[in-house]
Here is the input.
Amino acid sequence: LITPIGDGDKEMGWVGNVVMGHSSGAHISLVMIVDMIGEMMASHSSQSNDNNGAAVEKLQGVNGGIDSTTNKDKGSKPASYPWHPDYYIGLSGPYDISHHYDYEAGRGVEQISPMKPICGFTRENFDKASPAKRLLAYLAQFPGHPTDDGNAVALQYLAPKILLTHGIEDGTVPFTATSDAARQLRSCGLEDCHDVYLEKTGHQDVVMHFMLGGMAQELVWEFLFQTCDFQRKSRIQHSRL
Here is the structure.
């Protein structure tokens, strides 16, 4: 993403590779991110058994990373991963499919919604289609992965920085879908995961903010340029109007 930076309107800068989706697009794109992490874990799992130090160094290089011995940006990526997302932004997404199926059933739309057939009809398949549960499955599949060693490498090195945002007045996908997903992802080790909730904002409003201007657009810009304190993992964004 190339976008204006600084004070001058003509000044342009490279932000990085940004993956962003709204509603079902947020769900699908987060599944893609989790699958990328799983593929990298599988790629390096055998190396971790043979040479733990070399595997850790490669893992740190996947997404840049910080060298713990020098506290400097390693800034390199293996040739086997020519493209890697630097940021993931999820807008108003249904991330736990089983929970969202129950929510749609409460609204009486579960049989006409395309979500049920697309995600496999059964509760077991719903869990497989849920990003946080999918990530837990990858972690269980590779118990010998270097990320299990607290002195080696954090899982965050394999993942982009994550922002999940949701309108509090969303009646299509409840904002608890985002709060649950953020909590679960952080518990898996994705510490650079932030969730922000927009007051007086519905499901479609988030998209309209990008078309006409609004809190969601401002929030994403702040996240990409780190112009606000994102050390707070979870917060409510109040209107500035």
Observations:
- The longest helix spans residues 24-50.
